[in-house]
TrEMBL record:
One family name in Pfam for this protein: EAL
Keyword S-adenosyl-L-methionine: no
The GGDEF domain, residue ranges: 367-499
Species this chain originates from: Jiella mangrovi
Protein known as: EAL domain-containing protein
Keywords noted in UniProt: Membrane, Transmembrane, Transmembrane helix
C-alpha cells in the first residue's frame, strides 16, 4: 500500500506542470525543454515525411479529406517547430512547455483523425499498413518528455487509433488484443522514461549546484586564505602561478626555470623535505604536508605542499594538482619552541633534561670526562636585595662567562635556579680542578647591572667519570655532594668528590627523622595562594602550599624540607598529608572553586599516588573536577611507562593536570602529545624579564600553543602593575602572584581583596 501511494504521488508530480518556485525547478524545466526541443525537430521531420507519404498512397485526389488531415498535421508540426525556436530566443521553459502541451494535443488529435480516415478508406490489403502506422505514431510518445506533453499527444492518438482499429473492423481479435497490449506498454514506457529523465535531471541539477558551490568556496578560499591552489603540466611546470607564490618568488629566476615546481622550491641544507618532493614528482606519487623551502634574498621561507597526480582517460600523466601554504611564521615558531624544549629560556644553555642526556651519553661511550656543578653563592639574597630582574641578568652574565671557556667538545647547562653544570671532556681530575678554579675567578669579576655593582661568587662541585658503573645520576649525586661540601666550607670554593663526602651525607639523614616527626606531630601546615581572572578579579582556584614550623629552628623553607622528603622517601607521607588537608579544606569552600596541589616526581615512584588520590576524594566527598594536580617539568627527567600510566590514571578520575613552571626546566613539548594536561603555568622568570622583546615573543608563542591545545594558561609571579597590564593586553586571562595575593591560611575564595 505504501509503495502504491508513493508511486501515485510520483506520477502526479510527473503529470503536473506548474511555474518554477526554486532554482532547482527552473533547471529541471530547462532540461525538459532542451530535450523536447531536440525531439520536436526529429518528430517534425519524420512526422511530416510520414504524413505526406501515407496521404499520397491513399488516392488523395479522390479522397480530399486525407490531404486536409495531412495539411493539418504538417501545420501543427510547423507550429511546434516555431514554438521551439521561440523558446530558444526567450529561454522561457515554462511557457514553451505550456504551448507544447497544447500543440502536441492538437497533433495527437490530427494523427488520430487521419488514422480513422485511413481506416475508413483503406482496402483490406492496406489494413496492416494502417495498424503499423497507428502503432508507430503511438510509440513516438514513449521517448517524449515531459510526461504531461507526452500524454497530451499519446491519449488522443491512442484512443482514436483504438477506435479506428475496433470500430472500423480493420483488424481481427488477436490483432486487437496485441494492439491494446502494445498501447498499455507505451503508457508504461512513457512513465518509466520520464521517471528516469526526472531522476537524471535532478541529479544533474544537484551536481551543478555542487560544482557552483565548490567553485564559490574555492574562489573565496583563495581570496581569503593564506593557502593557494597549484597545478602543473606533465613536465612539472606550473600552469598558473598563484599570486601568493608569485609575491615571494624571484620572477626572473622562476621564468628561467620554466616555473618548475621542483626547481622553484630549490633544495638547501635546511630543507630535508625537498628531495622527497622531487622523488614524488618523478615517480608520479601523491604527497601530503611536505615541507619545502625557498630562499628569497637572505631570507628563508618555508612552505607546506600537498599534491596528487592527475591522469587522462587513457591513463597518461597530465600533471599534478594540490594545495600550498606559506608556513614560515609557524615553522620558525616551531623551531623556537623546539629550541626551548632543550634549552633554558633565560640563559640559552641546555636545560636539565638535555644536559643529563649529554652526561648519560658520555657515560655510555665510556669516554673520560669530568662533571662540574656550579652554584651561585647568596643568589637569593641578591635577588631579594636588587630584584628579580637583576638576578635574571646576573644568571645570563654567568652563563655567558661559562660559555666563553667552553671548548667544542664541552657541554654546559642550567640545571635550574642558580645552578649550572659543565661537562669537561678528555681531562683528568687535576686539570679539571684547575680549569674550574679559573672559571670561578672569571665569574667572580665585578659586573655592573642596572647601575649596581655586583661581584658574584660561585661554589663548584666536581666529580670525575672513573668507572663504568657510574651513570648520569650517580655522577650528578657525586658532584652534588662535592658542591654541598664547597657551600659548607664557606662558598666561593672548588671541591672534588671524595668517599668521605658520602659518609657525611649519611649523617644528614638525621634531618629526615626530624621531618618524619614533624609530619606525625602536625608541624606541617598548609597555606593557600589564589589564582584569579586578571580582568574581573574572580578567584577561580587556590594553590595549596606546605609550610613547616620547627619548634627550635622556626620556619623551615619548603626548598629545604621538600628535597629532604624526596631524598628520604618521606615524600609519599608528606604529600598524602598535604593532599588530605587541602581537599578537606576545599570541601568547605564554594563549589566553583578549584584546589591545586603540587605533585613531586618522587611521589610517582611507588605507584601508589592514583589510589591515594581516589581514597582522599572519596573520604572528603570533593568533586574530582575541583582538584588540580600540578606537575613540574622535573617529572620528565626519568620519564617512564609507569609515570605515564599513573598520570593517565589521575586524569581518568576526572582530576585536572597542570604543568607548572613551564619554560624553566625542559619545556617538554614532546610529552604534551603523550600527556593530556588541562593547563600550563608559565614560570615567573619570564614575567620578570618583561618588556624584553624575545620574552614577549616566547610568552605569546606559548599563549598560541595553549589556545591551539584548548588548555588554559596561568602566568606565575605577578608582582607589579606593569606585568599585570602586559598580560591583560596580550589576552592572558589567569594569573598568580604576590600582587594578587600572598599565600595564607584564609585566602579569598570568591573575589580578590584588591585588584589593580
Amino acid at each position: 500500500m505504501s509503495r502504491t501511494q508513493e508511486g501515485a504521488a510520483s506520477l502526479r508530480l510527473l503529470l503536473r506542470l506548474k511555474p518554477p518556485t526554486s532554482e532547482q525547478n527552473r533547471e529541471s524545466l530547462r532540461d525538459q525543454a532542451s530535450l523536447l526541443f531536440s525531439l520536436s525537430m526529429l518528430f517534425a521531420a519524420t512526422g511530416v515525411a510520414n504524413a505526406v507519404f501515407i496521404v499520397l498512397n491513399f488516392d488523395p485526389l479522390h479522397r480530399l479529406v486525407l490531404p486536409l488531415f495531412g495539411a493539418v498535421i504538417v501545420t501543427v508540426y510547423g507550429l511546434i517547430v516555431a514554438a521551439s525556436f521561440i523558446w530558444k530566443r526567450s529561454n522561457n521553459a515554462f511557457g514553451y512547455l505550456q504551448w507544447a502541451r497544447v500543440l502536441y494535443l492538437a497533433l495527437g488529435i490530427a494523427w488520430g483523425a487521419l488514422i480513422n480516415a485511413l481506416g475508413h478508406y483503406g482496402e483490406a490489403d492496406q489494413h496492416a499498413m494502417i495498424i503499423g502506422l497507428a502503432l508507430g505514431v503511438i510509440s513516438t510518445s514513449i521517448i517524449c518528455v515531459p510526461a504531461t506533453v507526452a500524454f497530451s499527444f499519446f491519449l488522443p492518438v491512442a484512443l482514436l487509433s483504438m477506435v479506428a482499429v475496433a470500430m472500423l473492423h480493420i483488424a481481427d481479435t488477436v490483432t486487437m488484443v496485441a494492439f491494446t497490449s502494445y498501447t498499455l506498454f507505451a503508457v508504461v514506457g512513457i512513465i518509466c522514461t520520464n521517471l528516469a529523465f526526472d531522476g537524471r535531471s535532478k541529479a544533474q541539477a544537484a551536481l551543478r549546484r555542487e560544482v557552483s558551490t565548490v567553485s564559490i568556496f574555492l574562489r573565496e578560499y583563495q581570496e581569503g586564505s593564506s593557502d593557494w591552489l597549484w597545478e602543473t603540466d606533465a613536465k612539472g611546470r606550473l600552469i598558473s602561478v598563484p599570486p601568493s607564490l608569485a609575491a615571494v618568488v624571484n620572477a626572473q629566476t622562476a621564468n628561467d626555470q620554466d616555473w618548475r615546481l621542483d626547481l622553484i622550491f630549490s633544495a638547501s641544507e635546511e630543507s630535508g623535505g625537498h628531495p622527497r618532493l622531487q622523488n614524488c614528482l618523478n615517480q608520479h606519487i601523491a604527497f601530503r604536508d611536505l615541507t619545502t623551502t625557498i630562499r628569497v634574498g637572505t631570507q628563508q621561507r618555508w612552505f607546506n605542499l600537498t599534491g596528487h597526480p592527475v591522469h587522462s582517460a587513457d591513463g597518461y600523466l597530465t600533471g599534478f594538482r594540490g594545495i600550498g601554504r606559506d608556513i614560515t611564521e609557524r615553522y620558525e615558531a616551531d623551531r623556537k619552541l623546539a629550541y626551548l624544549a632543550r634549552h633554558d629560556g633565560l640563559t640559552g644553555l641546555l636545560n636539565r633534561k638535555a644536559f643529563v642526556e649529554k652526561v648519560a651519553k658520555a657515560c655510555q661511550e665510556g669516554r673520560r670526562f669530568v662533571l662540574a656543578i656550579i652554584d651561585l653563592d647568596n643568589f637569593k639574597q641578591t635577588n631579594d636585595t636588587y630584584g628579580h630582574h637583576l638576578g635574571d641578568e646576573l644568571l645570563v652574565s654567568v652563563a655567558e662567562r661559562i660559555n666563553s671557556v667552553l671548548r667544542p667538545s664541552d657541554e654546559s647547562g642550567r640545571l635550574g635556579g642558580d645552578e649550572f653544570a659543565l661537562l669537561i671532556a678528555d681531562v683528568d681530575l687535576e686539570t679539571a680542578v684547575d680549569e674550574a678554579a679559573r672559571l670561578s675567578e672569571l665569574i667572580a669579576e665585578r659586573l655592573v647591572l642596572y647601575g649596581h655593582s655586583v661581584t658574584p661568587s660561585t661554589s663548584i662541585g666536581i666529580a670525575a667519570f672513573e668507572e663504568k658503573a657510574d651513570d648520569a645520576a650517580r655522577l650528578l649525586f657525586k658532584a652534588d655532594l662535592a658542591l654541598y661540601k664547597a657551600k659548607v666550607e664557606g662558598k666561593g670554593a672548588v671541591r672534588c668528590f671524595k668517599r668521605e663526602l658520602e659518609e657525611e651525607y649519611d649523617a644528614r639523614l638525621v634531618q629526615e627523622s626530624e621531618l618524619a616527626a614533624a609530619i606525625d606531630n602536625g608541624e606541617i601546615t598548609v597555606v593557600y595562594q589564589p589564582i584569579a581572572d586578571l580582568f574581573t578579579g574572580q578567584v577561580l582556584c587556590v594553590e595549596a602550599l606546605a609550610r613547616w614550623h620547627h619548634p627550635q629552628r622556626g620556619q623551615v623553607s619548603p626548598a629545604t624540607f621538600i628535597p629532604i622528603a624526596e631524598n628520604s622517601g618521606l615524600i609519599d607521607r608528606l604529600g598524602e598529608w598535604i593532599l588530605r588537608a587541602a581537599l578537606t579544606r576545599a570541601a568547605q569552600w564554594p563549589s566553583s572553586l578549584q584546589i591545586n596541589v603540587n605533585l613531586s616526581p618522587q611521589q610517582l615512584i611507588s605507584g601508589r599516588f592514583p589510589k591515594v588520590l581516589a581514597n582522599i576524594l572519596r573520604e572528603t566527598g570533593l568533586a574530582p573536577s575541583r582538584v588540580g594536580i600540578e606537575i613540574t617539568e622535573n617529572i620528565f627527567v626519568d620519564f617512564s611507562e609507569s609515570v605515564l600510566e599513573q598520570l593517565t590514571a589521575i586524569k581518568a578520575q576526572g582530576v585536572r593536570l597542570v604543568l607548572d613552571d613551564f619554560g624553566t626546566g625542559y619545556s617538554s613539548l614532546s610529552y604534551l602529545q603523550m600527556i593530556d594536561v588541562d593547563g600550563l603555568k608559565i614560570d615567573a622568570s619570564f614575567l620578570r624579564q618583561l618588556p624584553d622583546h624575545k620574552v614577549e615573543a616566547i610568552i605569546r608563542t606559548v599563549t598560541r600553543l595553549t589556545a591551539d591545545l584548548n588548555i588554559h594558561l596561568v602566568a606565575e609571579g605577578i608582582e607589579n602593575v606593569m606585568q599585570l597590564q602586559w598580560l591583560r593586553g596580550n589576552g592572558i586571562h589567569f594569573g598568580q602572584g604576590f600582587l594578587l595575593g600572598r599565600p595564607k591560611d584564609d585566602p579569598p575564595v570568591e573575589w580578590l581583596d584588591n585588584l589593580p
